[in-house]
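Why do we bother with a discrete structure alphabet at all? Because it lets us treat a fold like text: something you can write down, compare, and reason about line by line. To make this less abstract, here is a complete entry for Up-regulated during septation-domain-containing protein. Read it the way you would read a sentence in a foreign language you are learning: slowly, and without expecting to understand everything at once.
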Amino acid sequence: MRLGSPLTSPTQKHVDGINGQTVLEGYREELMNSFASQMARYNPLNVQRPQSSMLLNVNDPIQVHLLVETALGDSSEYEVLSPEEVDNLKKQCQSLTQRIKQTQQNLAIQSKYRDASISMSKLYNPSDKKESRKRSVLSHHKSDSVKEADIERMRCEERCEELALELWSLEKRLIEPQKRLLKHTAGVLQMTHKGPEKVTNGQGVQQNGIPGSPESMYTYHNSKNSLGPSLDDDLFDDRSLYRDADKLETYGETPKRNGFEPHPLSLPSKTQGREQMQMAKTEKKLEDLNGKLREAIIRANPDREQTLGQIPTSKVSNGRSMDANETLTSHLDFLEKGIDAEFDRQMEEAERRQEESDAAMEETIEDMNREIRGILLSYDPNRPELPELTGTGLQNQLLYFQESVRVIEAELAHSHDYSSIKAINNDTGQMETILMGLWDIIQSGYGEIRKQKQERRINRSANGLPDDDESDDDGGDSDETYSLQAFSKKVQWLYGQATKLKDQKKVLQVQIKQQRELNNKSDATKDTEMRQKSEELERTRSLLVRAEADSDRVREQLSEVMEKLNEARQNENLLDQQRSTSESSAVRAAQDESNQRLAIIQKLEGELEELKDDHSIAGAEFKAKLSTAESRIAEMTAQLKAATEEKAQWKDSMVERDVAIEQKEHEMENMKMKLAELQTEVTIARAELDGAYGSRAQRAAEVAANPVIAREIDSLTRNNASLAAEITELKSASASAGQGSKDSDQRIEVLKKELTETIEDYEKMTKANIEWEKERERLEETIDKLRDQREQLEAELSDEKVRWLGMRSPIGMDGPPSEAGRTSTTVLKEEFKKMMRTTRADSAKVVRAEQAERRRLEDELRSLKKSLGPGKSNLGQNLRPA
């Protein structure tokens, strides 16, 4: 790129279709006078309101009346707000105003920066094409300086445009609340406006001998229409709602002014009580607000506690204020005093910050002027001294800087007329000297880095630690002599190392991010699995409890069956005794069948006992396995908690390493900025030496006499080496942390495997329990069938008993057949009724016993659930990761 060729303009900012450069041009006049406020209008003829137009004649009643009527008509539709909304709008206006002032100050400072950068860019850009052609041969080594100057100028312009757009948007936002406040004020004044009263004697009331307006001679109005009729004098005067607090003592009276008589108002007692309550609430709110304001001011500046004094308190007697005027006035005075104190503090803080900013800027420009003067002293020993630091402005320093820039431009233009050839011959030697100095600095820096690495290796080997330095040591030979090829190779190697470090940093960041995502995902998966296993464990417990309850119920049913069988045996024994004399083949067959059924029942009872034993054994085994599984779960939970704690510690260490990496990156960026500043200073010095006189030896001696740059480059090289060593340590620490994460993942996998085996055991036990449940149902069906058969046998036995009773009746043997039939029938009925009553009573007893047993079992089950409740919650808590 040729020296002085124009660069592309900075990127234009757009907000709502507004160009940033256009907005900045609109603020040009304000920037020239540093956003000084415009002078308000002044009309000495208007004593009451001097800030008015010179064309306004306040002594003309017609003109004033027209203005009043126009204002009333225009503001008739304006919105009237509540006090809370007005306070909010005022707070918005105050906040936006402060931000606008701060933005204006920043824009003024940035505009000065922009002017300075433009002046600096003129050092490198020629003023005409002829001079550009003369300097095009020498400008190949100045392209970096030109680029940096133009980039700095574009950055300043871009920043100015951004601040201008921000200022424009803030001013636009401020318009809306100000507009609403002004409309509210106009609406309130229009609503409460009251024209002159109509006097009773019919004579017009004059003000200083002049009627207030032509309308005031004949009309009186108390509404929004000034031509409306007069209202009743006893109506409520709504103007009292907008009176000041110190005028409430004269509430209900119209001041006697310019001939008007007072207008007393008679208000109801209810309205007075409401007003007194409102005044008490207002005093309380003011007292609370003053307390908060006093605390905020003392917190910001404890020295103001004595000057502020104490908060005025309300004087209340019998629920109402004794001296409302004095109390409200004292509260308002204290509030005004606190607001003024806070505003003064904020203004002092803003002025202090502005003074510090101006002082820092003045010192920076003074440093630049000192450097430029040091450069120009070799050409002009009579250069004037620098202006002293005033701390009040930058004008003197900027003027001196602009004068120095003009001198440099003149010197450059003068020197290039006859020293271009000499500068070309001397440029190579000068560049050789500078490059040799940089070569020596780089070589010494790498020698020191190697020495530090060697000492670190020795220390680690002495402590029995392995060498953790895996960095590339191919930095060349520290004793290598200077050559242009070697210098180019060294610079390329440095660039490659920097690129490699950036790539490694990106890879580490990606790995850390992936590890975090994996850890979060694994945590969520583990939580889900543990929750599912807990639910399965709860279901297994419920199945076990239900199986125990069913086994108890089967045991009770079996006991009932056994009792009924004993009763049946007794009945059969009685029947055997009764049938000892005369036994028929049918009874004998029934007896055989009953014996067979009894054998089957006994067999089933034996099987049921065996099943009960098996069930009790299986239940004991299940309980033992359950206790073993719970202990294993507790151990696994403890291990999982320890692994989670290790994982949390590892995360904390990773966060600390990220913070350390960010700090090192920040330090590296600062070093890069310092290196850029040093390159800028070297470029300026190089530009000065291009037009210098004297031999090569003299220039080399002058360069050697200024060791500041060499020391700064040496310190930067050492800082670079220390940063590289710290990055290496962070990489090794990250690798070790990754190994720890792998160990914790392996432990989690082992715990997960053990938990899976435990769950499989649970599933097996659950399947066995289900099989036992099916076997129990099958046995219940068999018992039901046997019960039906027993009932059928009981019915057959009852029939046989009835039949045999009829056969053995004595009446049936001796009496007549009709009487015998009637007697046998009666006996049979009586016996059947007795038998049914006995059966019903037995059934009722059985039902009551079953209900009592069921209630007892339900109570035991509830108590068992209550006793198992805390253990279940503790197990669920143990299963959750810490």
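What the structure line is telling us, in plain words: The two ends are 64 Å apart (CA to CA). The CA atoms of residues 549 and 857 lie 8 Å apart.
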